[in-house]
Amino acid sequence: MKDQLQFEDIKKLAYGVLENFKSVCERNDIYYILSFGTALGAVRHNGFIPWDDDIDVCVFRKDYQKLIEAYAKEKDSRYRLVSTEVDANYSLPHMKIIDTSTVLYQAGRRNNYPLGVWIDVFALDNVPDNLRERKKYIKKLERYQAIWSALEYERKKRSSSPKTAFKSIILSLISAYFGNNSRNVAIKLEKLAKRYEYDNTREAGVLPFFPYDRNKSIFPKELLENSVDQKFENDLFPIPKDYDSYLTHIYGDYMKLPPIEKQITHHGYTVSYVGTK
Fold it and tell me: Residue 195's pLDDT band (boundaries 50, 70, 90)?
């Protein structure tokens, strides 16, 4: 469709959301860091990973509510914070800042109310120091995320093996317990992520939602609390000061480019400006 925004346009709009986020954080004394693929893009490309339009940032849990309050006071209506705390229709277990001049539909989601071009904002939560306790805790988070995903996204075609059928029955029963509502599970995940909020633990990580091995989102707090400015597109943004340890933990040899066939974006959505068809 001629009114759908193209890849490079979406990247420019997402960068505008990031610039707004930076301004809000600086005016409200909120500490944040570029994270995951965005931190990788900053180090390896001085900007976006060329085949990606994603922007991820992290804030410590103590600043999460502070960020909600900061955006509630903002006079610029173009950029809006959405989370389970402020939007009754929102069903993801982490926050987004969206550009309200755009409307974005993501393929495969059941709760597919329109958002807008966004950046993802992840809370950093404490994890228990005891490794056995941590392992049980992470497994519980992963179980709830599996339930959330089953409710949030359309099911892909699965094999008809007895094992798969049994898992499907169990998941259906658990899903029914949550009223077949992914938002209820997202709220549960966020509550579970805050279990150690007031504990003085040595490490922290992104817990409510993580698409990969959750252990790769967990770091010593000292690494997360110390940042250095790094060029990302047209401005400087904070990334972990020891970015080599941070990126190696997540990606291994992070400076090595993936094969050409894997240099593709995985986002399945369409974006247009509000009011266009």
Answer: very high
